[in-house]
Amino acid sequence: MSHLTTTSRRAPRGEALVRRAFQASGFAALLAVAMVFVFLAVFTLPMFTSGGMFAVLSPVWNPIRGQFGILPMAAATFGLSLSAFALAYPLGIGACLFLNGLGPRRAAGALRAVVRLMTAVPTVVYGFVAAATLVPAVRGAFGGSGFSWLSAMLVLALLILPTVVLILDGQMNAVAGRTRLTTAALGLGPGAALLFVVLPGCRRGLFAAAALGFGRAVGDALIPLMLAGNAVALPRSLRDSMRPLTSHIALVAATDSTSLAYASLFACGMILFGVTAGVNLALAWVRRETPRGGQA
Fold first, then answer.
1. Which SUPFAM superfamilies match (predicted)?
2. How many C-beta atoms surround the C-beta of residue 92 within 10 A?
3. In sequence order, which residues have a C-beta less than 8 Å from that of residue 166 and are 6 or more positions away?
4. Domain 54-294 belongs to what architecture?
5. pLDDT value at 2 more than 70
6. Of 56, 73, 124, 135, which has the fewest CB atoms closer than 10 Å, so is most exposed?
7. Is the pLDDT of residue 61 over 90?
């Protein structure tokens, strides 16, 4: 009896320790994010004190003349990210439908293995292969150098596709398992069950895949650096070269750390930080507002 009493007393203590450890981990993560924000804000201060903060929003980047406009890079970031996401997201949903009942079992298994393999391929390999194959094809078809919005968009969409597929595939598997008997009792075929029962039941998964896929597209630096052409100009068509914020930071980071050009990079970082924070806040709001039944 005394042994049982001792064990029951130890259990709450162990649970309390685990709870405190998780709370400390959460607080540490929150503190780290806050420190990143403070770091970016402090190093952006020279732009405020020099009166150049509004100049950062201009379309001209010419450090020799004291012009540090990052508007073309910001426009390139949103244009490239949104277009790559718009291409990858519906393809990811279609692939998940194929994996979860629309396709033959063997083909679905092979596709799932390929998608998992894609996550292990280094980004530089995607960029190198595309520079050797896709860029000449784009150059021959549309003219120009081939290092363009279109080339970067196609490869970036391929890069974020596994993120969308793997997140949503797990959600669909869980929902399909819970609703299999119900859909069979209703006489629904695999296609109808997926479209009218499983997919609506994956609302949280759909939003999570969208948020993480878009965040992946915004944050990637290597694909735009290798394929987008690095032109500091507002892109007007898919054939134009561009320089997103991530590539701009990578290219200019080696300048004098006391210059305004260097300080403007932290303004770029603030924009990227704001986009990432906005995506995560939107995802948190969706999780709170969506009923638990919509979660896979």
1. MetI-like
2. 27
3. 115, 116, 119
4. Orthogonal Bundle (1.10)
5. no
6. 124
7. no
